[in-house]
Write a structure and sequence with these properties.
Elements (H helix, E strand, L loop, with lengths): L8 E6 L8 H12 L5 E4 L17 H16 L3 E6 L11 H15 L4 E5 L10 H6 L4 H15 L8 E5 L7 H7 L6 H8 L5 E4 L11 H11 L3 E5 L30 E4 L9 H12 L6 H13 L4 H16 L14 H12 L5 H18 L4
Parallel strand pairs: 1-2, 1-8, 2-3, 3-4, 4-5, 5-6, 6-7, 7-8
Length: 382
């Protein structure tokens, strides 16, 4: 892939824990993103029961009709709708039934025009849970996950010549946090995965951390050398689920090497839970993905604020962004921050600006941080 100046896959992985986005917002994001080079959307909301907890069940008629509309909305914008399966919880890899269920479910999506699928094994125990699997896969979760993908490819209909499969392995970052949460991983996980995984399957990776501050070309080249498969970055910015629930990421994307396309096939961002506010950081992610070498984070952020809120709102959003950045860094995110005399006037004006737009949907989304700001403003000046 050397010589690439832009990612071949660019867009969103809706892969967070929490209330899934509304169908109307997803369609709006398709329109917004397509104008900025978005060409891929991975449907994988953790709290869609038919994606994860009850993945073996088909979508009921009403939910399926909504998904069909979403697939067609993506196709209209020339965005590849990727359906994600999350079968890992309690999965017996050596059983035939789950394979049959997955392919039956995939066939329904294929009939609707879906040509890319992802099998996601993130956030499950790091070791095999069933005795039959221990015996069949030599006690290796990496081998089990890779061979499961091989079985899927072997058994999919022969007519599916244009179908692409991706995998998110259980070991998707070298961050020690992963082992603390799910248990110690086997040695040489990526190498074992690589040895058993079909060559055509692309692999997800989040970077050096679950939520990395920086992703360098040197880092991804090291991972690609271990994986020997196409790499898709699942970038957990600007997402704010789980332990980040009291954070609001309004800043532009930063710390991503402009040369990443030289080694990375796809670049997808996991977005904010707040639908309307998500447009702000996602616009900067789209700008980076479309042209990493020319990406200017501050200019990208300024443009999206002016597009959505108008030039006159720039200073207010700068003040709100700086305040949220401080909250994000604070150890106690519920404690009002002390404000200096220098920053107070801009935040007073920003608060007034928000209150003047009470009928806008984004005001409801930002309210918890507005209430914290109001408490900060009542404190004595530092």
């Amino acid at each position: 892939m050397s010589g690439q100046t832009r990612f071949q896959r660019r867009g969103i992985v809706e892969g967070f824990f929490g209330p899934p986005w509304s169908m109307a917002h997803r369609a709006a994001i398709f329109e917004f993103g397509a104008r900025r080079g978005m060409n891929t959307y991975l449907y994988a909301p953790k709290d869609d029961p038919y994606h994860r907890e009850r993945w073996k069940e088909p979508y009921p008629a009403r939910e399926w009709e909504e998904l069909l509309k979403l697939i067609h909305a993506a196709q209209k914008r020339r965005i590849d709708f990727v359906y994600g399966f999350h079968p890992g919880k309690g999965l017996c890899f050596s059983s035939e039934e789950p394979l049959r269920i997955l392919l039956t479910k995939a066939e329904r999506f294929h009939d609707a025009g879906v040509r890319t699928f992802a099998v996601l094994f993130d956030d499950i125990p790091s070791r095999l849970e069933h005795e039959a699997d221990q015996a069949e896969f030599d006690g290796s979760l990496a081998k089990a996950e890779a061979i499961w993908l091989r079985k899927i490819l072997d058994r999919q209909p022969a007519t599916w010549r244009e179908v692409e499969w991706w995998i998110c392995p259980s070991y998707y970052t070298e961050d020690p946090l992963l082992a603390r949460m799910f248990g110690a991983f086997e040695p040489r996980f990526l190498e074992t995965l690589s040895e058993n995984l079909p060559e055509s399957v692309a692999c997800f990776w989040t970077g050096p951390k679950v939520v990395p501050k920086t992703i360098t070309l040197a880092h991804v080249r090291k991972v690609v050398k271990q994986l020997k498969h196409r790499l898709i970055l699942w970038d957990n910015y600007p997402v704010n689920d789980l332990s980040m629930g009291k954070e609001l990421h309004l800043s532009p994307l930063a710390g991503r090497d402009p040369r990443l396309p030289e080694a990375v096939y796809g670049y997808l961002n996991n977005p904010l839970l707040q639908e309307n506010l998500s447009f702000i950081p996602l616009a900067t992610c789209f700008d980076y993905a479309a042209n990493p070498a020319r990406y200017d984070s501050e200019e990208s952020w300024r443009r999206v604020i002016m597009e959505i809120f108008g030039r006159e709102a720039l200073n207010h959003w700068r003040a709100l962004r700086r305040y949220c950045e401080r909250v994000n860094r604070a150890k106690d995110k519920e404690k009002p921050l002390p404000l200096s005399a220098k920053e107070r006037p801009a935040l007073v004006a920003a608060r007034r600006y928000v209150l003047e737009h009470q009928r806008r949907r984004w005001v409801t989304e930002i309210r918890p941080w507005l209430e914290l700001l109001e408490k900060s403003l009542t404190r004595k000046t530092d």
